[in-house]
Amino acid sequence: MRSFLTAVLMFVSFASVATAQDLQSILQTHAEEVAKPSRNSVGVVLDDLAASGLPQVTVFLEKWAEKEVWQGSDGLFYFGTEDDDVLTWASVDTDETGTAPADNYSQIKPNGGVRRLIGTALVQFQLSDPDLDRRTAAVASIARRPDASQLAPLLASIDGETDAALKARKVQVANFVQARFADDTDVRIAAIESLSKDTTVEARAVLNQILNSKTGVAVEAPDVNIARIIDPFDAPEESYAILVEAGLAPAKQTPSEIRQTLEANIVDGRVGGVPLAQLSDPALRERAYAALSTAGLAPTLITDLTRDVALNSHVFYEAYDEGDAAITDAAQAALASVETRVGTAQVADLTLDALSLASIFFLAAIGLAITFGVMGVINMAHGEFIMMGAYTGYVVQLFIPNYTVSIIVALPVAFAVTFAAGVAMERLVIRWLYDRPLETLLATFGISVALQQLAKNIFGTQARPLTSPDWLAGAWVVNDVIQISYIRIAIFVLALIFLRLILYILKRTRLGLEVRAVTQNPGMAASMGINPAKINMLTFGLGSGIAGIAGVAIGLYAKVTSEMGSDYIVQSFMTVVVGGVGNVWGTLAGAAMIGFGQKGIEWFNPSNTLAAQTYMILFVILFIQFRPKGIVALKGRAAGD
């Protein structure tokens, strides 16, 4: 093997040097070994092929492993594929091709062991292949099935690697291989320590493989690299079974075996001096069996006391497969560091998920917060305005195939459509039901059902695609643990923009001043020349329009159906109530509380989002018992109400 590695390194160093020798002549030198390869003879062929530096060697090894090499009646070797007894052949050295009867050729069929050796050699050749894809595939192959023989050529190929990403990958894989197979202990420890900052699954797998251990038992602790001493009395029955399997103790009799032994030794109505009528007592059965054992008629009875004595007489342990304690100590320290980093990364990933969910809840609820806070209207159709916005985005994409432009156009169009729908709803229905919350709830619920059915009649029951632009495809990947989709990042940014915009409208514009005046004291606002009815209409339209924009954003990653509003109406009301009715900052606080709370519950049961939502609803019910006005209590009319 050492000579083979030397030859491979020569190939890596001199692959670009021209040679007058062709591949066929090398194959003819080893014709018998090529035609009938074995694990013992193939190494010589591979050594000479590596030393030749011929570029066609890589292709030959691929074909040889795939059983696509044939030997003609003239003794020469060809690449070939058979079809209906006709062989399409190609020269191993030139571009010459042709066809001939397959009967004139014999197919070379290396067995599985030889193919594995060829595959190992092939990977090493491919590490410095001019083709980037071949080099990438070779590194991936080493990562999947690392072997000590691959380390030298992998290290030799790093300095000459021209692709920066692949070079970094080669260094990483080289660390994996060195950590497991390097001959020098210091080199292995250095490689293991370098993995302490690598949170990838591959790095953790390498460290766990180094720390692989097996359970053993002996009369005395053996001179091996012991991982830990096991207390056999934590699981006495399982521990005794290990003793029996190791041949260090006799097997414990089963109740069935004891019964069969007793039945076979009945004499004059007694067994071991115990009358048959008394054998229903477990203690007397053991006494009878012990008497038979003393008489040499049965094996020694293994009682709990006998078992415990045997357990106390042996040492149970877990021993590392790796015999060097310095290696396993370094691996344990590295794995502990990695697990700490992974735990921190999981918290960061959970935080990003919670921020994303909170931003979605905020977008879905902010319009409802404004409407509910100013007007006191329980709008059960708010979810349908979200649905209308999503469908508006879908319709816009039907006319504008450029997804980036269509999204930019869809946002204001969705606002306009849902603003108009909100104004119409307020003028036609809501304004007649002020200060009548039960009738308002029933009316808006009926409108919700009607809008869902209208959407079904227009768009059908199947989900419609609202496609995001290419620049929103994929995810921001920090490492193997932390990643978040670009769509969710965009929704988070959109939520921040809307927070700033709404605060500007409420604090810096005349409309905002009038809205706040009506919120604080509608009677006094009317006496100052403000029209509360107009403000209510515009406010309801504004809240509905914001819901439409939220629908476009939510539709980019969620299904767009007639029922999609129902998925967000409950969370929207929870967000508004928990945060504080009619308060923008309260809505933000409520969205953060529910988003982080739901993700925190999902941490304990990631596979059941519905359960997390249910527990969150129960938490909200308890929360409002102690703080009925929400996190940020509203002052003024709503507070008085």
Structure description:
This protein is an alpha+beta fold and 641 residues long. It has three domains: 2-126, no CATH class; 216-320, no CATH class; 343-640, Orthogonal Bundle (ABC transporter involved in vitamin B12 uptake, BtuC), CATH 1.10.3470. The protein has helices spanning 2-14, 23-29, 31-35, 42-52, 57-65, 112-126, 132-144, 151-158, 164-181, 185-194, 201-210, 236-245, 255-263, 282-294, 304-312, 325-375, 382-399, 403-428, 437-459, 486-508, 510-520, 522-527, 532-555, 566-579, 584-604, 609-626, 637-640; strands at residues 69-72, 77-83, 86-91, 97-101, 105-107, 213-218, 226-230, 270-271, 274-275, 315-320, 475-477, 483-485. Strands 4-3-2-1-5 form a five-stranded antiparallel beta sheet. It has a three-stranded antiparallel beta sheet with strand order 6-10-7, with helices on one face. The radius of gyration is 39 Å and the shape is extended. Mean pLDDT is 83; it is low at 1-20 and 636-641.
